[in-house]
Design brief:
Layout: H1 10-13, E1 17-21, E2 30-34, E3 37-43, E4 49-53, E5 62-65, E6 68-71, E7 92-95, E8 99-101, H2 105-112, H3 118-121, E9 138-142, E10 147-157, E11 168-178, E12 181-188, E13 191-206, E14 209-218, H4 225-244, E15 251-252, H5 265-276, E16 283-284
Parallel strand pairs: 15-16
Antiparallel strand pairs: 1-6, 2-3, 3-4, 5-6, 7-14, 8-14, 9-10, 10-11, 11-12, 12-13, 13-14
The structure holds fe (ii) ion.
Residues 111, 117, 121-122, 239 line the site of fe (ii) ion.
InterPro entries: Cholesterol_7-desaturase, VanA_C_cat
Domain Vanillate O-demethylase oxygenase-like C-terminal catalytic: 102-276
Protein name: Aromatic ring-hydroxylating dioxygenase subunit alpha
């Protein structure tokens, strides 16, 4: 059974969604799903990419950015999100492979924003006992750009990146640009001033299923591309086990559904933001009961 997106779920419909990595598009058509709708992706003779959706006569809007193909079932902004750091000439674009997850895409974003799980899920990589405390950080809803940001985040990490030699106190900044698009900036072991950038573009295929497209923009001249991808995939597969065991699979937006702690202030703000936007795809409890 498929669940098509509700035509009034505008924040979801009018967003850009990543639907695959450009490097994996072959000569023939590719089939995928977005918000319960079947898509056919095809590169045309002139090199442009066309996306067609079942039930839509006209081709969908497309954009090629950050290593991904983006499309929308509604009326999206002029371009998918800008990541100014991605344009720096010495950054390496690392597309880490698409991963199917049997959980709401909103759950996948929320997990990406959570530091508390590092020592327990990514043990001896992104965290380790006994250093399990999430220190106080700052969360804000930047109304001018309508994004959620968390700053002043710190976590001690045994292996913060493939290129890290020994443990380090890693500074993090989190950014949520749209309901299914998030990224973080973290201390780079190879550059004292500029952070590494790791993005997670989530393609909601069904309310309780999604396809995650992790992309990194790294300052790392030495590591082999395959090793960078493997490092990130190992971490994401650790997350997938946790995500697929969460119940409910949909993200509850009712404030009483799950009891937050101080460490969850980013998650709480993310849920409030989704609720104010009346995001329903992948969520429960968005609309007040009347
Ligand atoms: Fe994780």
């Amino acid at each position: 059974m498929t669940h098509r997106v509700d035509p009034t779920d505008r924040a979801v419909l009018d967003a850009w969604h990543a639907v695959g990595f450009l490097e994996t598009l072959g000569a023939g058509p590719t089939h995928t799903r977005l918000l319960g709708v079947g898509l056919t992706i095809q590169r045309t003779a002139d090199g442009t990419v066309q996306v067609r959706a079942e039930g839509h006569d006209a081709p969908l809007p497309v954009a090629e950015r950050h290593g991904c193909l983006w499309t929308s079932l509604g009326t999206p902004p002029a371009t998918p999100l800008a990541i100014p750091e991605a344009d720096e000439p010495d950054r390496r674009l690392v597309c880490c492979g698409s991963i199917d997850v049997h959980a709401s895409g909103l759950r996948v974003v929320e997990n990406f924003l959570d530091m508390a799980h590092f020592p327990f899920v990514h043990t001896n990589i992104l965290g380790a006992e006994p250093q399990t405390e999430v220190l106080r950080y700052h969360t804000e809803w930047r109304r001018d750009v309508d994004e959620i940001w968390a700053t002043d985040c710190r976590f001690h990490q045994p292996q913060a990146a493939l290129s890290a030699e020994g443990g380090q106190d890693t500074g993090y900044i989190y950014r949520v640009a749209s309901p299914f698009v998030t990224l973080l900036y973290k201390t780079c072991p190879n550059d004292a001033l500029r952070p590494d950038v790791i993005a997670l573009f989530v393609q909601p295929t069904e309310p309780e299923r999604c396809r995650a497209h992790p992309v990194m923009f790294l300052i790392d001249e030495l590591s082999a591309q395959a090793d960078l991808i493997q490092f990130q995939q190992k971490i994401f597969l650790q997350d997938r086990i946790i995500l697929e065991n969460q119940r409910p699979r949909l993200l509850p937006l009712d404030a009483r559904a799950e009891i937050p702690t101080r460490a969850d202030s980013l998650s709480v703000t993310y849920r409030r933001w989704l609720k104010e936007k009346q995001v329903r795809y992948g969520a429960t409890g968005t609309l007040p009961s009347s």
